[in-house]
């Protein structure tokens, strides 16, 4: 059965908007695990816009399932990963000006650099996943550099403007997943998956795992709002 890893970056985004200590992604991670999540994802961005070093260090001690650290393949962040030793490191491309990750890692174009990063992380006992677009040359390169997993970038699928386009892009993802498996890579999928577009994936054996963050945290805010208001009213009026 496919597994779900939950990305809690978006809890940290809310905390950083006030630069205070709540909501805490560490607490969110524990709740996600209690609800059955198979792993917790955080993206320690170079600009530290949401997740902080402190979060990753504490999560390393508290996460009971699997900690997946999304990261750029830079010397600074590789050094932090080697010290903290998440269960999995997912290498992603990073741009300072982007709102969120905009595309897959160009493994084919930077094969030597990515190979070195994969080796350094694996030598520290960390399994490595590469976040790639569903393109044959990227999957082949991911296999050549020795990655353990690929995470297929589902952002383009998630942004499809019609059902026909979504069907076509989903077929591309299925073909890429089958190709990755033939190359011996375990297959994850993530970015932009939500409560509607996940339905095509239901029951598909091609994918081992899903990485989902924004839609789960967005829904949590709304489904939890009524209770939060009631609790405040009780404090004010009782
Ligand atoms: C790699 C990916 O698709 C997402 O996990 C994304 O990079 C999360 O990072 P942000 O929360 O900074 O968008
Ligand atoms: N790698 C994808 C991820 O962790 C979550 O992406 P999103 O659901 O926040 O778009």
UniProtKB/TrEMBL annotation:
GO BP terms in the entry: pyridoxine biosynthetic process
Swiss-Prot/TrEMBL catalytic activity: 3-amino-2-oxopropyl phosphate + 1-deoxy-D-xylulose 5-phosphate = pyridoxine 5'-phosphate + phosphate + 2 H2O + H(+)
EC number(s) reported in the record: 2.6.99.2
Top enzyme category: transferase
Positions annotated as active site in the UniProt record: 43 (proton acceptor), 70 (proton acceptor), 191 (proton donor)
PANTHER family per record: PYRIDOXINE 5'-PHOSPHATE SYNTHASE
NCBIfam families named among the record's database cross-references: pdxJ (TIGR00559), PRK05265.1-3 (NF003625), PRK05265.1-5 (NF003627)
Protein name, UniProt field: Pyridoxine 5'-phosphate synthase
């Amino acid at each position: 059965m496919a597994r779900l890893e939950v990305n809690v970056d978006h809890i940290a985004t809310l905390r950083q908007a006030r630069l205070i200590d709540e909501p805490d992604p560490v607490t969110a991670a524990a709740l996600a695990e209690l609800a059955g999540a198979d792993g917790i994802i955080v993206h320690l961005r170079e600009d530290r816009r949401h997740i902080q070093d402190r979060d990753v260090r504490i999560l390393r001690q508290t996460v009971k399932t699997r900690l997946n650290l999304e990261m750029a393949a830079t010397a600074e962040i590789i050094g932090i990963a080697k010290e903290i030793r998440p269960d999995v490191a997912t290498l992603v491309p990073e741009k300072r000006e982007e709102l969120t990750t905009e595309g897959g890692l160009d493994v084919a174009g930077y094969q030597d650099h990515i190979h070195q990063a994969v080796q350094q992380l694996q030598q520290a006992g960390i399994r490595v996943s590469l976040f790639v677009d569903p393109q044959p040359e990227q999957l082949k390169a991911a296999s050549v550099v020795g990655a353990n997993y690929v995470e297929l970038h589902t952002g383009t699928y998630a942004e499809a403007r019609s059902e026909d386009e979504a069907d076509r892009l989903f077929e591309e993802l299925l073909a890429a997943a089958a190709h990755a498996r033939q190359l011996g890579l375990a297959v994850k999928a993530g970015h932009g998956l939500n409560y509607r577009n996940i339905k095509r994936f239901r029951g598909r054996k091609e994918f081992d795992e899903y990485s989902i963050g924004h839609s789960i945290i967005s829904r949590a805010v709304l489904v939890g709002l009524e209770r939060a208001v009631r609790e405040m009213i009780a404090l004010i009026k009782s």
